[in-house]
């Protein structure tokens, strides 16, 4: 059985995703949001409970070693399908959810089989494999905080959208043009809620709203277990970085509500990417608490 007491392999998660339309035929459709270099699907689900809703896009696993990202994303899918909590039900039923737990499946498989701390895609290079998929999107590509050196962890790739994952995912997202109300990307670690921009210290047009909504979401996240998040624009709150999926969704696709979560833990003691599995459920719970508050506050601000 598939549960949230341990981390799963890609095959286990894909089998679980493929089981969902049979169990919830009225509410789940499988989506293939793109392809990977090694030929895997970027498999996800569309959750829909009523017609006429706007869409929210949720992406996990763009960095292969950040296992809590995909685990939190599948936790959210499961809660939206099974929870009887009124706030979670209201949130689930307010949007069409396009949710892809592993947008870098090749990298994730590699972290299970060879190198637990692999970050990038697995495309062929001259000296080193892979590009940082979160530096490869075509919005202010390679301007800042992204490397031209193939072996760097933040290698931006040969060109914008050189990676088949970002190319195909961005094409899929483009087909939803105008429908996407929010775009959320899950990473780890550091306990941050980040929003555009990453390429400049200039504030995004709705910076103040994004800060306010983020602070309300972070306050809600802290209630259950006291987990503290810091909220801010990428450039100031973490570091300059261009070519991320969230900045592209915001800057190129016009998605006004765009956040990157850096999930637990707060520090790199004992390798921050290796979060004990007994923290998957608490992380999922508090993150979902924050999403409930985030969408309530965003609605309030219009
Ligand atoms: O560097 C990154 O891609 C993210 N941090 S991580 O440690 N998980 O690698 C931060 C992404 C910042 N987000 C945006 N630029 N929107
Ligand atoms: Zn990351």
Automatic annotation (TrEMBL):
One of its GO terms (biological process) is proteolysis. It is found in: Secreted. Residues 6-298 form the Peptidase M14 domain. GO terms for molecular function: metallocarboxypeptidase activity; zinc ion binding. It comes from the Eukaryota. The keyword Disulfide bond applies. GO terms for cellular component: extracellular space. Its cofactor is Zn(2+). Keywords: Carboxypeptidase, Disulfide bond, Hydrolase, Metal-binding, Metalloprotease, Protease, Secreted, Signal, Zinc. The active site is at residue 262. Belongs to the peptidase M14 family. Involved in the digestion of the blood meal. This is Zinc carboxypeptidase A 1. The lineage of its organism: Eukaryota, Metazoa, Ecdysozoa, Arthropoda, Hexapoda. The chain holds residues 114 to 415 of 416 of the full protein.
């Amino acid at each position: 059985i598939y549960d949230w007491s341990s981390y799963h392999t890609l095959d286990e998660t894909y089998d679980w995703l493929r089981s969902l339309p049979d169990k919830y035929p009225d509410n789940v459709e499988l989506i293939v949001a793109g392809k990977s270099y090694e030929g895997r699907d970027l498999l996800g689900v569309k959750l829909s409970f009523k017609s006429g809703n706007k869409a929210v896009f949720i992406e996990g696993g763009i960095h292969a070693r950040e296992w809590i990202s995909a685990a939190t994303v599948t936790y959210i899918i499961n809660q939206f399908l099974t929870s009887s909590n009124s706030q979670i039900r209201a949130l689930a039923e307010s949007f069409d959810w396009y949710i892809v737990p592993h947008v870098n499946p090749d990298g994730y498989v590699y972290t299970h089989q060879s190198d637990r701390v692999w970050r990038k895609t697995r495309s062929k290079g001259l000296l080193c494999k892979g590009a940082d998929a979160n530096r490869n999107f075509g919005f202010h590509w390679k301007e800042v905080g992204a490397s031209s050196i193939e072996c760097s962890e933040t290698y931006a790739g040969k060109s914008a959208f050189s990676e088949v994952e970002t190319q195909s995912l961005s094409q899929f997202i483009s087909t939803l043009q105008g429908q996407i109300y929010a775009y959320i990307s899950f990473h780890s670690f550091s306990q941050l809620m980040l929003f555009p921009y990453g390429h400049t210290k200039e504030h995004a047009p709705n910076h103040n709203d994004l800060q306010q909504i983020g602070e309300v979401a972070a306050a809600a996240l802290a209630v259950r277990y006291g987990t503290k998040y810091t909220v801010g624009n990428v450039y100031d709150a973490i570091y300059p970085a261009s070519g991320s999926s969230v900045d592209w969704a915001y800057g190129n696709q016009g998605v006004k509500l765009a956040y990157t979560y850096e999930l637990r833990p707060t520090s790199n003691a004992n390798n921050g990417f290796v979060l004990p599995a007994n923290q998957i459920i608490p992380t999922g719970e508090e993150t979902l608490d924050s999403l409930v508050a985030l969408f309530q506050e965003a609605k309030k601000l219009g």
